[in-house]
Structures are given as structure tokens and as C-alpha cells.
Amino acid sequence: MSSDRLRTPDVDALLEAFGSLQDADEVYAFLQDVATIREVQDMAQRLAVARMLAAGEHYTRIQETTGASSTTISRVSRSLNYGAEGYRTVIDRLGASGDAPGGDA
């Protein structure tokens, strides 16, 4: 199972590091050090795609709004529908506190 490959002592330490951060500025600083700007932007884009899919948006609108490729949208859709529930957990917790890109906020 892929989660078995993901659950390693190093990944556990990474999760603990994220959990130790106290505010958005600390998270930004850590992300800047641990990942490239492109990697962070890619993760942010995937979350935006997931939120739009969960809101019922069509692939074309998601592509136009986020710039994500159809391949990325398809992969996120597969994770959203058949994955480990990570996207669903985050989307549910964010709820109305943050509108999906392209929303009428």
C-alpha cells in the first residue's frame, strides 16, 4: 500500500515539524526552506483544484481559473474520490472560511 511507503520516520519527523509551527509566518518560512517555490505553488494549485471539484465545478472552468492541466485535475479528482480522504478532511475543515478560487466571495 502506498501509505506504507509514505509512513517513514523521516516523514513522521516532517509532520512533527509542521505541527510545531505556531503561525502562518512560521509555516511560510519553513515551506520556503524545505521546498521550492514551484513545489509549494503546485500543492496550493492542487488544493484549489480539489476545492473546486468538491464544489461541482467543471474541468474547463477549473483549468481556466487555476491553470492546472487536465492531467492534474484528473489526478486530484481521483484522490478526492478514491484517495485517503485527506482532501475531504481539509475541505470540510476549511468550510466557508475560505472560498474556492473563482467563487463569488
CATH C-level class: Mainly Alpha
Give the DSSP E fraction (strand runs of 2 or more residues).
under 5%
Q: DSSP helix count? A: 7
**Fold-level CATH name:** Trp Operon Repressor, Chain A
The percentage helix is over 70%
CATH superfamily: TrpR-like
N-to-C series of helices and strands: HHHHHHH
- Our count of domains comes out at 1
Overall pLDDT, averaged? 90
- What structural class results from the helix and strand content? mainly alpha
Return Rg in Å.
15 Å
The CATH architecture can be given as Orthogonal Bundle
Name the overall outline.
globular
* Largest pleated sheet: none
* N-end to C-end Cα span: 40 Å
DSSP strand tally: 0
Word description of this protein:
The protein has 105 residues and is mainly alpha-helical. The protein has a single domain (2-95), classed as TrpR-like (Trp Operon Repressor, Chain A). The chain has seven helices and no strands. α4 packs across α6 (70-82). The radius of gyration is 15 Å and the shape is globular.
Tags for this model:
single chain; 105 residues; mainly alpha; Trp Operon Repressor, Chain A; 72% helix; 0% strand; globular
